Amino acid sequence: MKIILQIFIISLSLLCSQVFSEYSYTGANQTALAGSVSANTSNENGLFQNPASIAGFEDKIIIAGQSNIFNQSYLPYQYIGLIYKIPMINNIGISYRSLSTENGGVKLSSESALSFSKGFFLQKDKNSCLAAGFRVNALFWEQSQSAGTGDGTNGLDANQESSIGLDFGIIGGLRNRYWVGGYLTNINSPIIGSQHLPRKMILSLGFSPFEQVYTNLSMERLLGRNDRQVKLGFKYNLDNQFSLLFGAQSNPNRFGLGVEYHLERIAISYSLLTHHVMSETHNIEIKIK
User: Fold this and answer.
1) Cα four-point dihedral sign 250, 65, 173, 214
2) Which of 204, 205, 229, 275 is the most core-located residue (most Cβ within 10 A)?
3) Any idea of the CA torsion for 274, 276, 277, 283, to the nearest 10 degrees?
4) What pTM was estimated for this model as a whole?
5) Mean pLDDT lowest for which of 4-13, 18-27, 177-186?
6) In Å, how far from its chain's centre is CA 241?
């Protein structure tokens, strides 16, 4: 009975965020911040969240991480991303995310996204800035053949689908201390398997009272639904090496916690995110600048 309940809850959670490109907790920082979307105009989280965040990123970076959703070995989730500055084009981001369901070493289904992100400034001066960004996602979904009655009879055939999704974001900043941003996903309403993929809207407020502290409040809602999630994130740089991250989310209530250790141009991060019924999700990540 417990296993059946777990499968039901996991299926419901994945359906509510399908496809996984709508997963709000990609990255150790995002997991620790409970999915709170950064409104900063210089943040590597723009690879997976608001693409306008990479507009002012001043360095190149490679990010790679892995987690098991709800700490279940049959729900492995991996991601990798790169931000690089190209002459005349400025910052671009390339990322890949993959979520699969496995049983006995057999991959039952998988979802993956290969994304290209671009952030740029519409206006920037000493006191204020306005940045915009977009992301093009190549979405892929695969389903293995089902067993049917046990020998394959009356089972479902293997299936593969793909589509293109477009995301758009905008962020305004004042004196590098106050930010407000908006972010829309799947604005072109892509279709996989005759089903329109969900579109999501996120509004964010960011505040940095001083250089070592960043706080963020965001509201997330699937278009066409009235319920919403409110998320609060807090990051504190203890020194040049250690950073602590905390986060909380409503509907359902979830809490995040993480730590990041910097060693010259390498950063190693660990974070966890609780769930009101299922086990916590752990995330391990490495960044190379």
Assistant:
1) positive
2) 204
3) -10
4) 0.85
5) 4-13
6) 24
